[in-house]
Design brief:
mainly alpha; Non-ribosomal Peptide Synthetase Peptidyl Carrier Protein, Chain A
């Protein structure tokens, strides 16, 4: 899976969970885009479903924008695969 593909899928999850338009700032933090703790929990579940990765809440908040979270997912996928 390419990093562009991962970023596209993570962006789609943000759009789905936060009701964002197709074009939004991938560098904007999750909270700034309207995310809350309940939405972060749903994001954690969706990441597990899509990528088969468990991402702890602390990691979600440290990597809260699409670009950073995508890099984390790519790194985890690489280390597991």
């Amino acid at each position: 899976m390419t990093s562009q593909n991962i970023e596209s899928q993570v962006a789609s999850l943000y759009q789905e969970l936060l009701s964002l338009p197709e074009s939004f700032d991938h560098h904007a933090p999750f909270v700034q885009l309207g995310g809350q703790s309940a939405t972060a929990a749903r994001l954690q579940i969706r990441l597990m479903q899509v990528f088969h990765l468990r991402i702890p809440f602390a990691d979600l908040y440290r990597n809260s924008d699409v670009v950073s979270l995508s890099a984390l997912v790519a790194s985890r996928l690489e280390s597991e695969g």
